[in-house]
Amino acid sequence: MVIKKITGPLLGLLLSTLGVAAPTPKPAYDFFICANINRNYTIGAEILTMNGVFQRDAAGAWQHLGYNDMGVTAVAFDPRDRRVWYTSALNGLWRTLDGGKSWRMCNGWEMTEARDVAVDPNAPDYVYLALPDGVAVSADRAQTLERRENGLPDRGKYTQAIKVDRTRAGRVFAGCETGIYLTEDAAAHWRQVLPTKEMVTDIQQSPHDPQVWLAVTQNAGAWRSTDGGVTWINFPNVPKARALYNVTFDVTQPLRYAIGSWIYGVMTTEDGGVTWQDRNAGLPAPHRVWRVGIDPAGWLYASVYGETLYVSKDFGRTWRADALAGTGVNNFMILPRSTN
Length: 340
Prior knowledge:
Helices cover 3% and strands 41% of the residues. The chain is built from 1 helix and 28 strands.
């Protein structure tokens, strides 16, 4: 007698016939970093290393994508076509339509030192760019860019982070030096939803519950919203005296978050922020953690300034050095895998 394992559509049909709900398949993700290998590099010298966007492949190696640029701060992809993607960089906004083979600089001299870039998943022609002096928006896949800053303050609109709500077209958050600002009409109008006296360094939406958002700041601690970013509550157990550089969710477990900080190093929670733990054992001191990221397997990464990329398979309890020695990571990004 031969017994065969039943999988895929046949399993779903069998379970449906028996009145049993088929298990929901876990979404597949791709993992990217924006990084520069800058150990011993001085400005003006010839760039001899590969820098910019890297993707973690199935074998665990980092594969370089696109052009070589030490100033790439973020990357965003068009959900309709992964060959179309954008990078924010020191000299502005760059776009490729052919998967990184060729590039076009999309801005003029008045829009440089871009800090972040985002594509609206529900209106992918719209591209949002965070700048040191405000926000620029494109409605035509970065063919043209225009300032849209109505409601942002005349002073205090340095924008470090720009994030689009994946549930509704035109709903975008900007993290500025005076707080978090929200637009619900594609940046035609902005309103402040969280006032701060310090820079908002990062904003992230939960991959599990789109109503849940996290934000961290330069010296005003960490914050959470459970109503889609309309109101925000401070995490009392996260220190405020020093800079928090970024925050991230774990796609494998909804109550696990991690924060990267220059002085505090890596801080994690596994209960949705009720308690927080320092996870620095095995990382070089002082704990100059520039960014943290969590990959699709739940592995935790820390970019330590002047050192290398470190990885932990037990959510920060132990660490080991990863590849790309001398790398500074400006951004970690986890993205649902494209079928295109």
